[in-house]
Structures are given as C-alpha cells and as structure tokens.
Amino acid sequence: MNASSLAKAVVDGILTGGVYALMAAGLTLIFGVMDIINIAQGALIVLGAYMSYVLSVHLGIDLFLGLFITIPAFFALGVFIEWAFMRRLHERDRTAMSILVTYAVAIIIEGVLSVIFGVDYLQLHASYTDSTFHVFGFYLPYIYVFGFLLAVALLGALYWILYRTHFGRGVRGSLQNRIAAELIGVNVNRVRAVSVGIGVAVTAAGGMLFGATNAFNPSSGYDLISRLLSIVILAGLGSIGGALVAALFMVTLEDVVAVVWSPVWATLVYYASLIVVLSFRPGGLFGKAAVRAQ
Amino acid sequence: MTRTRAWMLSVVAVAAITALLAGCGGSSSSSSSASSASSATSATSASSTSASSSSGAASGSPVVIGSSLSLSGDFAADGQAFQKGYTLWADDINKAGGLLGHPVKLDIISDASSPAQVVTNYQKLISSDNAKLVFGPFSTLLTVPASKVVNRYGYAFVEGAGGAPAAFGNGLHNIFDVSLPVIDNLVPYAKWVASLPASERPKTAAYATSDDPFTGPQIPIARQIMQAAGIKTVYNKVFPAEVTDYTPIATAVASSKAEAVVLGSVDVPTVSAFVHAFIQQHYNPKSFIATAGPDQGDAFLKAVGGASNADGIMYPNGWYPGYDNAESQKMVNEYVARYGGNASGVNADVAEAYSVGQAVAQAVAATHSLDNAKIIAYLHSGVTLNTVQGPVTFNSLGENGAAAAFVFQWQKGNQVQVLPVGASASKPVTYPKPNWGS
What we know:
The complex is a heterodimer of chains A (about 290) and B (about 450). Chain A has twelve helices and two strands; from the N terminus they run ααααββαααααααα. The model of chain A has no long low-confidence stretch (mean pLDDT about 85). The N and C termini of chain A lie far apart (about 45 Å). Chain A has one domain: ABC transporter involved in vitamin B12 uptake, BtuC (Orthogonal Bundle), CATH 1.10.3470. Helices cover about 75% and strands about 5% of the residues of chain A. In chain A, helix 2 (about 40-60) packs across helix 9 (about 220-235) and helix 5 runs antiparallel to helix 8 (about 190-215). By secondary structure, chain A is mainly α. The longest helix of chain A is centred in the N-terminal third of the chain and has 32 residues, at about 5-35. With about 450 residues, chain B is of the alpha/beta class. In chain B, about 40% of the residues lie in helices and about 15% in strands. Chain B has helices at about 1-25, 45-50, 75-95, 115-125, 140-150, 185-195, 220-230, 245-255, 270-280, 300-305, 305-310, 325-340, 350-365, 370-380; strands at about 65-70, 105-110, 135, 155-160, 175, 205-210, 230-240, 260-265, 285-290, 315, 385, 390, 405-410, 415-420. In chain B, the strands form four sheets. Chain B has a five-stranded parallel beta sheet with strand order 2-1-3-4-5, with helices on both faces. The longest helix of chain B is centred in the first third of the chain and has 22 residues, at about 1-25. Classes of the chains: A mainly alpha (about 290), B alpha/beta (about 450). Chains A and B meet through helix 1, helix 4, helix 9, helix 10 and helix 11 of A and helix 1, helix 3, strand 7, helix 8 and helix 9 of B.
C-alpha cells in the first residue's frame, strides 16, 4: 500500500459516498417528516434502476435524461404510497408499525419486478458508465463524478425546499406540533403526502445511479437497506445534510480500511464507527431535534 | 381500530400473494403433466430418467418430492434456475412412467436464501407435507444446515450445488452431491497456467475471494500450484460475502498490475463489479478467471455490457450447454422449448438440478423402493449413475468422485470448453485475454 493507493481510496470513497447519500436522502426525509422507517427504500431504489433500464434499453433515452420521466413518476408513486399505506398508521405506534407496512411494500415491489423482469441480473450501460478521465494520476469514472454532482445538486435542492420555502416551513411546523400547524391553516396530510413524494422522487435518481454502478435484480434492495439505515442513523434521522456527511464519512472510511488493512475488516470498522459516534451523540451527528428546529 | 386492522391484514395479504406469484414463475407441480412416454427418449435416457418398469404414463398415487429453493433473496437467480431443472426432470420422469409407476409431484418452497429458513422448510416438507423424498437447495451455505436436519429424519439428501468441503465435514452419511467437488474447480486452470512456457506465463497473480464456503477452499489450491510455478502473488485478500461496494477491492487488484487474476466469486454482481472497475482503471490482465458468475449465460453478458467485455473471461464448471452428451442435449432442447431463449442461456444450475432427479430415480429403480435407507445404501455402493452432467460415483463422503473438472471461456459471445487441454471437446484457450470491448 502506498500514498497513491490511499489517495485513490479516499477519492473513490467520496464519489461513492455521494451516490449512497442520494440513495439515503429519501429514507431520512420520510422519517424526518413522518417518523416512518421506510424499509421499502431499497426496493424503491431497485425499482428506479428498472425504470431507467426500460427507458434506456426499450426507448433509447439517456440515463440522466430519463430522470425527467422517472422523478415525476416516483413523486406520484410516493404520494400514492403515503395515501395508501402510511396515512392510515396510528400516531402512537406509527414508527413501529411502519416497519411492517413498508416491508410489505418492499415485498410487493420485489414480487411485481420478479414477475415482469425475472430474477436475472441487469446493469445500466451508457457511453459514460465505463469511461474515465485522467487527473492527478487517477482514472476517475464519469458515472461516479456525474453521480456525485447530481447528489450534491439534488440534496441542495431538498435542503432549500425544506429550509428556505413556505412549504418547508409547513413541513417543519407540522413536525413540531401537528395540531398547532393545523390550527394555523397548514394542511398536514397534504404536506406529508408531498414530502413522501419528494423523498421517493429523489430515490429515482439514486436508483439510476445504483443501477449504473452495480448489477441488480429484484432482490438487490435487501443488501442496501442496512447500509442506508446506518447512514441515516449516523447522520441523525431526518437530516438531509447529515446524510451527505455521514455517507461520505462512512464509505470513505470503509474504502480506506479495505485498501490499507483488509476488506474483511472494512465492514466491521464501518459499523464500529457507528457505535462509537452514537455512544457520544445518541441522536446522530445532526439529531432530529436540531433538524426540526433549524 | 377494526378498520386499521383490516387494512393491515390487506397489506400483508397482498404482499404475501405477490411474493408467491414471484416465486412461482414456473409450476412447482409436475404430476398433472404425465402423459405417454416420449418416443424420442433414448435408451440411455430411459435408464437414467425412468424408474418405472412400464413405459406408459404414471398412474398411481403421487410421490411427493420436497425441496427448499431460494426463489427470492441473494440466490434467487440460481434458485429459480434450480426450480426449472427440477421441473424439467419431473416432467420427463412422469412422461416415462414416474417413480415405480407413481407420478412425481414436486413440493418446492422458498427459503429466501436464508440458512435459518431452509432448516424450517425441510422440517415442514418431511413432517407436515409428508414428502417421501427430498432434493437439495442451492449453495453450500444452505446445504450444510439443511443436511443436518434432513439427516435427523433419516432421509437421503441428494443435492447439486453443495459441493464445498464444508458440506462433507459433518460426519453425515446421507448427503450426496452429484456435481463436481468444488475444491478441485480451479486445478485445471492453475495447472494450465503453470504449464505455459516461461516467456508466456504470467509473472504475477492477484487472488481476491468472497468469504464463502464455496469459494474459500478453491483459491489456496490454485495459488499453491501457481506459486510453485514461480508466479508471484502480488495481492491476496478475502472480502466479506455482503459487500455492497467492490470498488476499493477491484481498484487495489488493478493497482497491483497482476498479470493473472483469480476471483473467488459467487454471483454475477461480484464479477460484473470487477470487470467494470478494471475497464475504468484501464487494466486488462493477461488471464482472468472467476469461480462463479460467468456461467450465468446471457445474464452475465447483460451485466458486464456485452460479449466484447466478456471475451477471454474463464470460469470452472462441470457442465455447459454445448456439453457433448445426448441426455444433456435433450434437456437443453426441452428447456428452450419450455422457457424460451436459446441454448447459451441455459446455465449450469439447471443441469445440476436435473442430475439430482436422475440420480434419485436410478436409485429408486435399482432398489425398487422409496425407502430412504435403501436409497442411501445404494448410493454408497460405488455404483456409477448416468446424468446430464456425465457419470456420478459417490465416495464415502458423498462427493462425486467421477466428475471431471472443466474450464470454460467466453469467446466471441459463446461459452467454450477450453480445459483440460487435449480433452475431446476442448478448444484452444484465447490467451492473452483480448482487450476490453475489442
């Protein structure tokens, strides 16, 4: 191992971390707004990958241009999921019951995808998925660089919506006190539906990037969910910016350990770091209370 | 409260139904398809497929054969291919008269690729579903726990995808693997590399393997042979089975600039991730072999980006669609007729599953019994059985001592047998590996 390998691991970790942040953003947003742990996030990512596959292979639409179709479609799907599955959960046991309900949603998505596409692995391909450019002695894949930039842009947009718009104030107001928000005229059901819609819409982009960097089949979402949950827990459930910081930190740490020490220890160190951080900051790096007060 | 409960039940019910639909892409029951014996059935096939003294359709009460397969989860692609193999065999055996005149009815339940669920499934199959015989699941990971519970009931456990040493180290007398023992998988490759003229032989090699009972035993043997031939090891790491990002590992292999890469992989995504990382790092080893993944036919090509990226990649196996065996060709044709696609899309899982049925059928025919104790004794008798993968003879551990190790290579979109050199069906190895995308 030399300095060059270490630097490459850091660069890879940062670029890959951006992709993971994008995949985790919807998860943390939905929890932040509704106290719902969306176990279906992994399945939604895979669904996003399949939608991009259909647009790319069958309609010849570029992967990134296809997002102009998949993101609105996923927004509508998110609104439907909120209406059909999440709105009916009781306030008092919402978080616990949401795990069961969204797991059922994940199974439904996996089942439908299996029936339509079968279980063979697929991967998204475009001219830039294997292409690289050379800088400072490294070959940087365009797909990861584009993905990182897309992640920063979309997470920035999410942050702006939540903290710089009238709608965002409504979201945060309904989080702090639902009854008070309703009394001053906030339509809480609408705010929640739109918030889940946005969370799922962002996942469409995460799904495209996942499919362009990994082979996937309808079951691939289950491998992702533990990783994504660990990122949003480290970030502080509900924190958009925290998700980016946590994803960059954890994936970079894992990549560096894999190169410097051993891939076997990378996963262990990854989760050990989560335990250490939570020991000192039980609410994560950017806890929910702080997020809602911003 | 009542409405909420009703809604919750509805959600769970829909999920359960969807999961069932997804897992049942093919019929798991073959008893209804019994018809007259196929006139195309060859003499060899009749001896290995049918266990009936009559050649007409099976007419007795059905014999339930149970199996737990990974119809969802990490091994879903392999599990569903196994289901197709078992189903094809069941159809053929029923057309040929069934087992001792009884039609075969498969009872396949999904374990979702879970070592815990597979144990529960075999308990259910034997104690609740009254399966007379059981067939094995997919992978050594699931075969090991399953074999222990099946042994408790005294059932024969014939399987096609649990060939790692871990499956045979538990002192069980009931386990039989019809496929090649995986510990020998890479030996023909390593010996071939070692036999190359010094000027052509790779000078360095990288070894990366998943922490899995299937891959783990294969790599050290290959490394030992190659090191003895003077090939220096420049990278040798194990990575966890549940890796979600292979980039740092693949990049480290690329950085080592090894001239040969030996990858211990269990699935398509692992190999695909390494291929894409190698392309991105402008790294093309002279030789690249992966223990599993490239054997998945069209699914592998779709993942790596087409035949031009697969060209030159090698993999070990005991069977391929072009295998020169009449029964194998018949099975491939039946597969294409039933499931569509072409011969190259038939992966080895189908043949492994089909072979399980053939071995059991021959044991039932020879013992004239569905008694598991008699079947176990027969399979341990040293008899040679005929399967679509070739001859099967079980040693004292239950490994197939008659299996031949082959190595295949992707050449211009086709899977070609290349090793052992000199074997009748072996074609020349493409070496060094062509550039990516060429």
